[in-house]
Structure formats: C-alpha cells, structure tokens
UniProtKB/TrEMBL annotation:
Domain of life of the organism encoding this protein: Eukaryota
GO MF annotations, alphabetized: DNA-binding transcription factor activity; RNA polymerase II cis-regulatory region sequence-specific DNA binding; zinc ion binding
Record-stated family: Belongs to the nuclear hormone receptor family.
Alphabetized PANTHER family for the sequence: NUCLEAR HORMONE RECEPTOR FAMILY MEMBER NHR-31, NUCLEAR HORMONE RECEPTOR FAMILY MEMBER NHR-31-RELATED
Subcellular location: Nucleus
Keyword Nucleus among UniProt keywords: yes
Name by which UniProt lists this protein: Nuclear receptor domain-containing protein
GO CC annotations on file: nucleus
SMART domains given in the database record: ZnF_C4
Residue ranges of domain Nuclear receptor in the record: 36-111
Amino acid sequence: MMRGELKISGATSSSGPATSYVIREKSNSGGSQNGDSVCAVCGDGIAKLHYGVLACYGCKGFFRRTLTGKYRYACRFGNNCIVDKFHRNSCRYCRFQRCIQAGMDPKAVRPDRDQTGKQKVPRIKKSKLMRNY
DNA sequence: AATCAAGGCCAG
DNA sequence: CTGGCCTTGATT
C-alpha cells in the first residue's frame, strides 16, 4: 500500500539513538501550522494525535485491533527488536510495546471525552465505495 | 460551523 | 493483517 521505498541517504546520524523520536509540539504560535507530524512509534511522516500520542493510521488501527481482539503476539527474541518504519510490520509484539512505550493509553480506546454513552454509529454508508460492481 | 478524536470498514 | 479514509459525535 504505502510501502514507500524510503531510503536513508547515508545520513546514519552518528549518535542517532533510534529510540529517540523528536516530537514537535503542536503549539504552533505562528510557526509550523502544518499537520505533518511524525509517529512516535514507527516514525511515519503522516501522523496525528491518537490515544494521547502522535500515531499514524497504521499504528492506530493496529492498536485498536490489538486491544479489541486481544491478540497474543510473541516475540521470538526478548523485546528489543528494531522497530522502524521498515521493521514495524515484522514484529507485532515489539510494535505493540512500542505503542505503549510511546504513551498510548488502552483506556482511551473508548472514553474519549465523556462516557455519556454516545456514538452509536448506525453507519449507513450509502453510496461511496462499491462503485459499479 | 469547524476541528479533533475515535470507530469502523474496505481495499491490497 | 496492514493501512487509509470516511463517519460520527462531541467539544470549542
């Protein structure tokens, strides 16, 4: 899908701790008003606030799916697998930990602002997808 | 009304 | 199973 063949141009930041992702504050007071943030988990370019942390759609769906499905991932190693934008899909267990480590709250899955029992979402989805079948 | 945030479904 | 977008609802 989006498997962009991203290529690190040599860069290889000398002392580049892969575990250090600089999350820019969105306190745009006349500066970068762009919504291009980086995922705190995989480091994707397109990420937005989700579950309390900057996460991309992939991590969002994965996180939700993991919590709701309560999947049982197991890393054959310890848990120090390199989780980058390239290896994120390799180890689900490590990726999940990455989400938690990023600061994603499992409790934010449902009660976003108020638990008045809202969002029933009938989901009509009349004509949008399924063009001419 | 506009924006943000989460849920869910679909396409590959 | 992964990833993107739409839908929904509340909040500002």
